Amino acid sequence: MSKKLSLLSAVLAGAFVMAGSAQAAPLTLAGNYVKVGVNDVGTFGSGGATSPGLLHDPTGTGSFGINDYLTPGTPHDGFGVKSDQTGFIGNDNAFGGSGFGTAAPTLLVGPAALGYANAATWSGGNSNLGITNSYFFNPNDERVLVKTTITAVTGLTNLKFVRSEDPDPDVNAHGTFDTRNQRGNNLFGAADFIGSAGVVSGLFLGFVNNSGNTYTHNTLISSSCCTTQDPDDVLAGGGAIFPAAPDVGDYGLNMAWLIGDLAAGDSATISYYYVFGSRIDDGGGDKVPEPGMLSLLGLALAGTAVARRRKTA
């Protein structure tokens, strides 16, 4: 049997996981700065308002307490796919799995962990496609690498993928759901970075594209805090672009990629980061950038240098 047919058979075997099945126990991954839950719908969060959702300790001492971006409140972390064959479907930590069902997440070890100390994966699907979200970070990282792979069971055209988040870093400590939301910062353009910072704490959570320009991509700040937005709307872009005054409110973050067409058995992988920190304007680079991040940072810094030379001239 060919490798492509073997992959397709594996996707078909796991593509009909039923959304109504018994809830699997979430996995918890913890480092010095970040502690997360990965649940049975393939998103962050431990199900409902159960901690951990997305915990961040800016001191790097592993002292996780009140800085949970998902709980309490409506713990929205979601993803979705849209194509001519499927329409817009998705899974969501706030409202449970739908389009891709539920399944137990599993730990990744050995070569599958890609050298990371913390690694987990989840797979679901339906009659049209299989989807896998894998999560990776090391103890001193203030970011989580996510790799999403979509495998076509049937031919898919005009395929798009979107990831979304409703960050609430100040709820436990200060009782407010509002964040300062912006697209782009000192390191990344509006299509490659979207983030929200607590209006009181300043603690931020954002998305950084790590797929370069392999796929057309963009970001959207949504006033609908707790739902995954249609990827066509996200690809059109929207919301405050740094350094303009940010959008302030209980808003959501969305990043989307246009994949295009996939023949049956073919796959596409999207790479991106969830990034955390205490300064949104220069956040997302982390301490030891990886190859994908280095290319993005190099482009960003080169652009900054050119702008400075022009100003000096």
Architecture overview:
The structure is a single chain. The chain contains 4 helices and 17 strands. The protein has helices at residues 3-14, 171-174, 231-236, 291-312; strands spanning 27-30, 34-38, 54-56, 77-83, 87-92, 106-107, 118-125, 129-137, 143-152, 156-165, 179-183, 193-198, 204-209, 216-222, 247-249, 252-262, 267-277. The model is unreliable at 1-21 and 291-313 (pLDDT under 50). Strand 4 and strand 5 form a beta hairpin. Helices cover 14% and strands 36% of the residues. The strands form 3 sheets. The chain has a 9-stranded antiparallel β-sheet with strand order 6-7-8-9-17-13-12-11-15. A 5-stranded antiparallel β-sheet has the order 5-4-10-16-14. With 313 residues, it is mainly beta. It starts with a helix and ends with a helix.
